[in-house]
Amino acid sequence: MPDISEIIKRARPRETTVTLYLAGDEAAEVERLEKELAGLSDTWQPDSLGAKSPGEKLAKQIAATRERLKKSAVEFRLRALGRLAWSDLVAAHPSKDKAQAWDPETFPQALLAACCVEPAMAPEQVAELFEVLNEGQRIELCQAAYDVNAEATSVPFSVSASSILASLTAGK
Question: Are 2 and 55 within one domain?
Fold first, then answer.
């Protein structure tokens, strides 16, 4: 059994990555085109054997717009804080409500600034970023910052990888 010094040397803080798509206009365009395409499939009837479905053009527009949306992806890499850094951060953001461990208005943004290693952000930059993100994106980032600190680390199970590997060995 390894001694504690070896264990401490091997230990690494937990990390996680959150991917956000920043082109909100492109997301809206995909939704609009999808609705238009759904409406066509109910009404369009070919008038000849050579007739092309107007859905083909829309499908190509959707594919191109989705590619632009994918290019707007930004990854945020978060790393867990150590015990003292966590404790200090909680202490720096006390709640007015004694039933809460921290101030729900200030703590999440401060936690994100402290945990985000790529891109590194100051608390003021988190505030600026939050002005252009929607509520769902803000929640996703803040929840990931909390989870990377609060959840235990285990070996995640991958259904996809397990299925692929099982299919490779099926019948053997």
Answer: no
Question: How is residue 6 written in tokens?
Answer: 């070896």
Q: CB-based contacts of 118: which residues, under 8 Å, 6+ apart?
A: 75, 76, 77
CA distance 169 to 172: 6
> Cα 47–52–57 angle (5° rounding)?
140
Q: Is 76 inside a domain boundary? A: no
Structural domains of the chain, count: 2
Q: What is the pLDDT of residues 137-165, one digit of tens each?
A: 999 999 999 999 998 888 888 888 888 88
Residue 43 Cα distances to 10, 29, 64, 109, 148, angstroms? 63, 22, 24, 49, 49
Give the separation between CA 115 and CA 15, rounded to whole angstroms.
9
Residue in 62, 61, 69 with CA at minimum distance from that of residue 26:
69
- Distance (Å) of CA 144 to CA 9, 125, 136: 26, 18, 12
Q: Which residue has the tokens 């053009």?
A: 57
The 10s digit of each residue's pLDDT in 51-78 is 787 788 899 999 999 999 999 999 999 9
* Helix or strand (DSSP H, E) at 2: none
